[in-house]
Amino acid sequence: MIDVKKAVAIARDYLTELLRDQVGGGQPSLFLEEIELTEDQPTRWKVTFSYSATYPENPVQQRYYKTVDVLAEKGEVRAVKIRVLD
Known about the structure:
Elements: H1 4-19, E1 31-37, E2 44-55, E3 58-71, E4 77-82
Antiparallel strand pairs: 1-2, 2-3, 3-4
């Protein structure tokens, strides 16, 4: 099973690659927000990052949150979801 540091690194690399084109081709500035090890089967690391961006449909810079699900056994990314704050 991968540890928390490895899960964060995998999630950060994956999300950076996905967001690169959306933030103007540069490195998105990701901030680690939350980490959770689920008790589901299969066990997953849920790693949440935030980043600031402006998009053509919304020209005001805002903070966005994404959660990356990483399988704890294999270190594979299974999903990237929008994290909505309560």
